[in-house]
Specification:
Layout: E1 5-7, H1 11-18, E2 25-31, H2 36-51, E3 55-61, H3 66-71, E4 79-84, E5 87-93, H4 97-108, H5 115-129, E6 134-138, H6 148-159, E7 165-168, H7 173-183, E8 190-193, E9 196-199, H8 201-210, H9 213-217
Parallel strand pairs: 1-3, 2-3, 6-7
Antiparallel strand pairs: 2-4, 4-5, 6-8, 8-9
Helix pairs in contact: 6-8
Length: about 220
């Protein structure tokens, strides 16, 4: 129904609304009844729905449909996801009415969606994690680490005599933020072996304690 905000009370309803054939853009508000900022953003959504009849607006109570929230990494409310052809093309975290309005206007107008840029970043990150058999994404460089965790990680790798390459995440903000989502690992350093995430410092320390670190670094596990 044009101008209305739909409610998705289940994963089935959510997927059905995403596949709505007469809408090019679907905006989903992940909300919670206990959060006052969500009520405010619901009012903003209702106003946007009246202005953009060609866009589908959906409310989904994040904690009531946990399988959907977990699938899309919803860790706080309000969060807004933007879908085209059932594929997520953009995201907005927090109660930012002006930014929500701008994103709706941009995507509804048929401007270039975020997906191509995201695909380019994904391809770039794939190349980076595979740039060497053992890749360490750290803060600073091996000679000048810029955090204690990165310094300890470098020392552990050097102790095992395995050749490794590094990338300073402070040198590229796009990589620094993008790799967190790419790896689903929120902190640095991050260690990759043959393109696969091993983990952060705690994981590497556990592998060292169990005697499994060297085989992992050599790609034998």
């Amino acid at each position: 129904m044009a101008g209305a905000v739909a409610a998705a009370g289940s994963a089935e309803q959510f997927h059905k609304l995403l596949q709505c054939p007469d809408r090019s853009l679907v905006v989903v508000h992940f909300w919670a009844p206990w959060a006052p900022q969500c009520a405010q953003m619901n009012e903003v959504m209702a106003a946007l729905a009246r202005e953009h009849s060609q866009v589908s607006f959906v409310q989904l109570e994040a904690e009531a449909v946990p399988e959907v929230s977990e699938k899309y990494g919803i860790s706080s409310v309000p969060t807004f996801l933007f879908f085209k052809n059932s594929q997520k093309v953009d995201r907005l975290d927090g109660a930012h009415a002006p930014e929500l309005t701008q994103k709706v206007q941009r995507h509804a107008a048929g401007a270039a969606p975020a997906a191509p840029a995201q695909e380019q970043l994904h391809a770039r990150l794939s190349r980076l994690v595979n740039a060497a058999p053992c890749m360490l994404f750290m803060k600073g460089s091996p000679k000048e680490p810029r955090c204690g965790f990165s310094r300890q990680m470098v020392q552990l790798l050097q102790q095992h005599g395995v050749a490794f390459s590094t990338f300073d995440v402070f040198s590229d903000e796009e990589v620094r933020q993008g790799l967190k989502a790419f790896s689903n690992w929120p902190t640095y350093p991050q260690l990759y072996v043959r393109g696969e995430l091993v983990g952060g410092l705690d994981v590497v320390k556990e592998l060292k304690e169990s005697g499994e670190l060297l085989p992992v670094l050599k790609g034998e596990n």
